[in-house]
## 1
Amino acid sequence: MKIGLGTAQFGLDYGISNPLGKIPVAEVKRILGFAAANGVHVIDTASLYGDSEKVLGQCLGEHHSFHIITKTPQYNKSLITEGDAEQIKKVFHESLVRLKQSSLYGLLIHNGDDLLAQNGAALWDAMNDIKNSGLVKKIGASIYAARQVNAILEKFPIDLIQLPINVLDQRLIRSGHLERLKKRGIEVHARSVFLQGLLLMNPSDLPDSFCSVRVHLQQYQQFIGERNVSPVKSALNFVLNIEGVDTVIIGVVSSAQLEEILHACVDAPELTANEYRNFAWSDEEILDPSRWKVPA
């Protein structure tokens, strides 16, 4: 199963199309149970996702089949200190405690720019120490833009990368970066498949800050509607059929929603990459949710 489970909603109110807020622990248990029973093996979390790691620790139990990936703190500074590098180790061990695990599958720099800051190699060295101690199998970075891929590949032998890909955001496909990553044998996880739910919403319901893309989204939804393909199935079909993507990280708010998503992965619609190419968007104010101006 190529689907992996994102867990920001387990610890935070997260997503433009999520009116329910943080998911109750009982529902998290149902989601994890359904995921395990249906071949979902990757869980993506982070120390910055509120209570997500703690909730996972409560719900997973001693024996499970999941590959858990967590992330470092974010530093967002021009100069990384040795103290920052030590903090990586400290926070990782705290993550192990919260998750109630003796080791994890992956550890990612939460923002690739931290590795590229002055003395960013100190963060890499700290992660590599964790890997060499046997506490994590793969280390790498979560990135947002092609420039980060170029710079990181020049400096660091990463094992794993997480990056945004969706119907609107096709930048890393068009630039050839995805192909470059796979040639190096790097495991690729795609996130933002639904663009925090933007691709699933009725364009007329979007806030005014999305007016630049509203007509484009209406045309996209008309296109898939004429082919009797749901927004969920279309968004998944696009990413699941990209050669080089190993895991597609999705977030859900209920086990019923996860069931819908897994069902949508079956019997892929007959939409080609060329057809999807017409719906690529270039404005990073839309492609990067951290830039969204969403009313409170």
Note: The longest strand covers residues 136-142.
## 2
Amino acid sequence: MGGFPKGNLKAPGSELTLLERSLREIREAAPDAEIVLVGSSAPYASLSCPALADQPAGVGPIGGLKALLDHAAVCGKSYALALACDLPRLNRELLRRLVNEQPAALALVIQQGTVRNPLIARYAVAASRAAVGRSLAANRYSLQAVLDQLEPGIATLTLSPAEAALFDDWDSPSDLER
């Protein structure tokens, strides 16, 4: 987005930013959840959310997932949600499903076409920390590699076509026009 933090873009039809809107939806869906920002959070300092640095830094999103899972383990949580900050239509109903459905799954992910989206997912903390550790040790930094490590314990959240349309993300300026 030309160096502009995606989470600070205005949500469609709202005065809220994408991240402010997502935070509202998360708080409605899971009022007792601790919300933390992961990665470069300086652009979002005004939101007063705790922030975690990638662990390790410089390896992409897997460093953020490791930081999130390590934090969840320290807090005694059994699962953690990983959500990208650029989901303009994320809603509380689907978040509730992501939190509650298929509780025994090692990971519950949204599938978009043939791709499992690891940044719209719920992760079982213990198993996922081990999978991240194995991926990092093998110098495999893709979040898909982490999901591969969790097979066959991954479940997919089944979405209607209307629900699937809610999970578009904004990766380039042309996405804003949709």
Note: The radius of gyration is 16 Å.
